[in-house]
Fold:
Amino acid sequence: MTKHRLPHLVLTLFAIGFTGLLLSFASAEDGWVSKYLTVNKDGSITYHADENGNTIPDFSKVGYHHGYREIPKLKVVKTLTAIDKDATSMIQNAIDEVAALKPDKDGFRGAILLKKGTYSIGTSLCISTEGIVLRGEGEATRLIASGKGQRTLINVQGSGRPTEITGTRVEITDNYIPVGAKSFNVSSASGFKRGDAIILYRPGNEAWIHDLQMDQITANDQTRQWKPEEYHLRYERKITGIQGNKIFIDNPVVMQMETKYGGGAIYKYEYTGRIKEVGIEDLRFESEFASDTDEDHGWIAVGFNHIENGWVRNVSAYHFGYACVSLAQGTKNITVADSKCFEAKSQITGSRRYSFNNDGQQNLFMNLETTEGRHDYVTGAKVCGPNVFYSCKSSRTHADIGPHHRWTTGTLYDNITTDGEINVQDRGNWGTGHGWAGVTQVLWNCKAKGAAVQNPWASGKNYVVGLEGQQLQGRLKGRTHGEWEGQNKAGLQPTSLFLAQRIAAKMK
Structure:
């Protein structure tokens, strides 16, 4: 057993609320408990390991500042009113004006308030400077993606990429690191200190790909067999402590690391150009369109890349072809909350209608709703967790929820309700040869028409705890079902794994 114990509860559970607090502390007498973990009377959690030491990981440290800091309400420094012509230049000039202001000690410049009314946006808006919030007055402030052209209406984007600091790489010496671990041994910890930003590096490996049978995908004209150099996984972490050559990290390992599959390493990194502290809030986005299958119009309402510690909240998107919010690979610790994606307009086929899309790390999507989507709460290729989708609803769906592409690691789907499917499976030659969609994917207390959740041939497990819905075979025969527990059994406690883990994390 692995026990994470923190002595007292901080009641400021940002964006969660007292009802969730009570539900998370509901006793086993009110229902049933999972064999994978125990919520103790003091709110701490004991995780029950399998024969190899693997546990369901801790997903609590996701979202804005890992959930330890409340999303701020920035002071308004610029106010705009609607005009009867294209408003792109007016709003972009205001963004640029606020970008020129000196940030305060916390890195904030201020909020731009768009008063209620309709703002026509013929191209796109861009925020590339940190400390800026674009705010409306809720549904009464309408930003319209006018005219033709697939585009992202609001781009929040820094620059750069994670760059290894030369001479800092050291090898991990453990033969096996289980899922859920927050510590491991390295050849030498002398060059590291608490607080260092590191990459936990897990290299691609031919033996691993062979054991996953991803060099044997039944091919069509588009199929690409997996190649080791395309599967080097880089997890962003911070060092929380050092004991000798033992390193402790803030977020857990979410995929088994084994010497037989190439082991692993850590190194310090820089991300020059990545911005932070940008928010989009209280806005309604709409796209003009010519027909239900029109594709020459607004595609994404809000797109983030190369940014950490930002947020999107209280927004709605209507008639976009791809997404309300799409977080690219360079995002980290973003919270997307209390938002909606309705009535998408596009063809109903691949690469469309990914209502809330995540390709980044340590991001939180919560309290969301969609209609007419395909992959409503979804991750792409080689997405490195942990990431969380919590308390989200989908209706009139056209495909499935879950890891869509290839080998996402460490995602929690908690209290997801859909009239479609939630799938974690070997996708075979779909797309360009997606193959295994992911590992350490956890479905907790979800409701769906059905779910195909399978364990990959190597490197870990996928979990389904308390699902209301059918167990599906999945696309391909001969795959092993994942770890199913309590199917169609009401009363799972804690009701929300994420809330319980967040509460435990805030106890000190």
Remarks:
- Confidence is low (pLDDT under 50) at residues 1-27.
- The longest helix spans residues 88-99.
- The chain has two domains: 64-160+274-507, 163-267.
- The domain at 163-267 is CATH 2.40.30 (Elongation Factor Tu (Ef-tu); domain 3).
